[in-house]
Specification:
The chain is built from twelve helices and seven strands. By secondary structure, it is an alpha/beta fold. Helix 9 links the parallel strand 4 and strand 5. The longest helix has 23 residues.
C-alpha cells in the first residue's frame, strides 16, 4: 500500500487580503492609461519642472514635431483625468499641475520613473542599447571610496547611485552622465565629511531650477572671495541646462570653469554642510537645520529676461554678494 504524506508546506492556507477596491482600481487605471504615452509624460515633466510653476502650450508644442491640435489633444487627455488644470490668457493657454495631484506627480517623476530607468537597462530603441552605466557607476564608487577611507564603501556607493539617478531625470545627453555624476557625488561627499571648525565659511544658494540666479550668486562668491568663502548652488527642481544668457555671463565671471557648471538637485547634506543658506526669491523651502543661517534674496528671474536684463540681475546679486562676503570675513 502506498502512503502519501502531505506536509503543511504543500497546502494553500488562505489569508486575509487588502487589495485595492474595484472603484479605486478603475480610477487609478484610467489615470495610468492617460499617462501611458511618451509625449504626455514629457509634457507632464516639463510642466512640473517649469520654474514658473506652469507652462504655456507654445512651450509644450516644442517637445515634439506634431501639430497644434495633436498637442491640445494630449493635454485634454491629462485634463480629463484631473492631472492638469488650464487657464486661457489672451491667445495662449497655460497649464499647471492640479494642486491635489502634485504629490502623486512628484512621486511618479522622481521615484517611479527613475526606477524604471535603472542603470544597465535599455532604451525603447532596440538598435541603440544604453551603455552599461551600472558597471561604470560602481567603478566610480570604488574609486571615490578609496579616496575617502573615513566613509564606508556602501555609503559612498549609495551616494554615487543616488547622484546618478537624480541627474538622469533631466539629462539630455546620457554620454555625459557619468562625468556629471562624479562631480555631483564628489560635492555631496565633501559636504558629508565637512569639518565646520576647520573649514572656511560655506554658502548654499538655492532656487527652483538652479539654472540662473543661484548659479550666478555662487560664481560671484567664489570669484570675489578667492577661496576664503566657498559657495555652492542647488535647485529643488533642477533644469536640464543653465539658461543661455546666464551661461555666457558665467563664462565672463569664471572663465573656463564655467563649462563645469550644471543644474544640481538640492540635498539635505548640502544644507547641513552650509553655514548660510540663501534662497533666491522663488519660493523654495529648505530643511531647517539648527546652527544654519537662512536668508532670502528677492532678485529677478533670468529665465524671462533679455541679455541686458540678466546683466542687471547679475549686478544686483553682485552687490548683495559683496556685503555677504564682507560680513562672513569680518
Amino acid at each position: 500500500m502506498n502512503v502519501t504524506l502531505t506536509t503543511a508546506d504543500d497546502t494553500c492556507s488562505p489569508v486575509a487580503t487588502h487589495a485595492i477596491g474595484l472603484d479605486a482600481a478603475s480610477s487609478v487605471a484610467a489615470t495610468l492609461k492617460a499617462l501611458s504615452d511618451p509625449l504626455r509624460l514629457r509634457m507632464l515633466s516639463a510642466i512640473a519642472s517649469d520654474p514658473r510653476g506652469e507652462s504655456c502650450v507654445c512651450d509644450l508644442a516644442e517637445l515634439a514635431e506634431v501639430s497644434q491640435p495633436t498637442v491640445s489633444h494630449h493635454l485634454k487627455v491629462l485634463k480629463d483625468v484631473d492631472v492638469l488644470t488650464s487657464e486661457r490668457r489672451g491667445t495662449w493657454v497655460w497649464y499647471r499641475i492640479t494642486p491635489n495631484r502634485r504629490s502623486a506627480v512628484t512621486a511618479l517623476l522622481e521615484s517611479f520613473a527613475p526606477a524604471t530607468l535603472a542603470p544597465g537597462g535599455v532604451t525603447g530603441d532596440h538598435d541603440h542599447p544604453r551603455p552599461d552605466f551600472d558597471a561604470r557607476v560602481t567603478r566610480l564608487a570604488d574609486e571615490l571610496a578609496a579616496e575617502i577611507p573615513d566613509l564606508e564603501p556602501d555609503v559612498v556607493l549609495t551616494i554615487v547611485r543616488e547622484s546618478y539617478t537624480a541627474l538622469a531625470r533631466t539629462a539630455r545627453v546620457t554620454s555625459a552622465l557619468v562625468p556629471l555624476t562624479e562631480r555631483f557625488a564628489r560635492q555631496r561627499l565633501a559636504d558629508l565629511t565637512r569639518d565646520r571648525d576647520a573649514s572656511v565659511p560655506q554658502v548654499l544658494f538655492v532656487c527652483v531650477a538652479n539654472a540662473g540666479r543661484s548659479q550666478l550668486a555662487a560664481a560671484l562668491v567664489n570669484t570675489l572671495a578667492a577661496g576664503k568663502v566657498v559657495a555652492r548652488s542647488a535647485g529643488s527642481a533642477p533644469a536640464d541646462i543653465i539658461h543661455p544668457h546666464v551661461r555666457s555671463i558665467l563664462a565672463e565671471i569664471e572663465g573656463d570653469r564655467a563649462a563645469e557648471r550644471f543644474p544640481k538637485p538640492l540635498t539635505d547634506d548640502a544644507v547641513r554642510a552650509a553655514d548660510v543658506v540663501i534662497t533666491m526669491g522663488c519660493g523654495d523651502v529648505c530643511p531647517i537645520i539648527p546652527g544654519v543661517r537662512y536668508d532670502d534674496w528677492a532678485v529677478g528671474d533670468p529665465a524671462l529676461a533679455s541679455r541686458e536684463g540678466v546683466e542687471a540681475i547679475r549686478d544686483d546679486i553682485a552687490a548683495r554678494v559683496r556685503a555677504l562676503v564682507d560680513d562672513l570675513l569680518s
